[in-house]
Design goal:
- The structure is a single chain.
- The protein is 30% helix and 19% strand.
- It is of the alpha+beta class.
- The chain has a single domain, classed as q2cbj1_9rhob like domain (Jelly Rolls), CATH 2.60.120.
- The protein is globular, with a radius of gyration of 19 Å.
- The termini are far apart.
- Bound molecules: 2-oxoglutaric acid.
- The site of 2-oxoglutaric acid has 8 residues, from strand 7 and strand 10.
- InterPro entries: Phytyl_CoA_dOase-like.
- This is Phytanoyl-CoA dioxygenase family protein.
- GO terms for molecular function: dioxygenase activity.
- Keywords: Dioxygenase, Oxidoreductase.
Length: 310
């Protein structure tokens, strides 16, 4: 009998079944709804520089000097500026008024990352569209997000869920942990099916959902996940967290994607961004990706919010 293939962290198998790491990652994303890629696949990520930039940006956000923030206890945009309960995220890392924006841009437009993104979306590299680059940070009090799918409301019927889950997402979303991070919790496989009655009827903050899995990232690892997998965030205020939270789309994406992206307010500044300072290897492609985002903003008009009051 043949020896079963031994999966490696990046989804490749050791007996030759899937030698292409990009396709291996895609197979795992499709099967489980998420895939964790080791730091060794991204040798040009400069973790030290990113940590320093992240610390400066977080400090500016906590002290009121950076206005683009996710404030407690709100889960979805728009976030009020009231920081009395603290923050759990920092928005728009690549905004030109952030002194560290180029350090973040260098990692966002990383050529190796873009190869994974392109395979995971199923989209040519020339069709990639800039979307969002934010950071999820340690709140100053314990905090949790409810179980959710990013773009399918909890009120959706089984049929509505299946209709949305059956369509192509046309984007890739990832968490790049700058410190070890065990905040993201998913139900593997739930990106392909409607919620079970247990999931539907569970407490929105259920701590023990059947089959739930904590995505444990070591510093430098990248988790790509389907943003409509059933998931939540649970944050321990004693544990440092600086996790870069990015998404990239494809020019073939629909209006629904435009709302998901533009509700964060990125169109308001991206037009003014000239990407000066980005190295030549990244710059040309980055400019093309940015132009597609500008176009999305111009064509979409007022997109509203996914869940304004939560
Ligand atoms: O904290 C995380 O990693 C998950 C964040 C999340 O679920 C969200 O922003 O919708």
């Amino acid at each position: 009998m043949a020896t079963p293939a031994a999966p490696t962290t990046n989804g490749a198998t050791t007996n030759g079944a899937t030698k292409d790491p990009y396709k291996g990652a895609l197979a795992r994303l499709e099967r489980d709804g998420f895939v964790v890629l080791p730091a060794s696949l991204f040798p040009t990520f400069d973790l030290e520089a990113l940590r320093k930039a992240a610390a400066r940006t977080t400090e500016a956000a906590r002290s009121g000097k950076w206005p683009y923030i996710r404030t407690l206890p709100k889960q979805f945009p728009p976030w009020p500026q009231d920081t009395s309960n603290g923050i759990w995220g920092v928005q728009h890392l690549m905004h030109p008024s952030n002194p560290d924006h180029m350090t973040f841009a260098k990692s966002y437009f990383d050529p190796e990352l873009l190869k994974y993104v392109s395979t995971l979306i199923g989209c040519g590299e020339d069709e990639l569209t800039m979307e969002l680059y934010n950071m999820l940070v340690r709140p100053e009090q314990d905090f949790a997000l409810r179980w959710h799918r990013d773009d399918i409301p909890a009120t959706a019927t089984d049929e509505e869920e299946m209709a949305r889950l059956g369509g192509k997402g046309w984007h890739a979303q990832w968490n790049l942990a700058l410190y070890d991070d065990a905040s993201l919790i998913v139900v593997p496989g739930s990106h392909k099916r409607a919620r079970t009655s247990t999931e539907r009827n569970a407490d929105p903050y259920e701590n023990d959902m059947p089959d739930q899995l904590v995505v444990k990232l070591k510093a430098g690892e990248v988790a790509f996940y389907n943003n409509n997998i059933l998931h939540r965030g649970k944050y321990d205020c004693t544990k440092e967290r600086m996790t870069l939270h990015g998404s990239i789309g494809c020019s073939r994406a629909s209006k629904e994607r435009a709302r998901n992206v533009l509700q964060h307010g990125v169109a308001e500044w991206v037009r003014r961004w000239n990407l000066e300072g980005l190295d030549e290897e990244r710059r040309e492609r980055a400019v093309a990706m940015k132009e597609k985002l500008v176009k999305m903003g111009q064509e979409s008009g007022d997109v509203g919010f996914y869940s304004q009051d939560e």
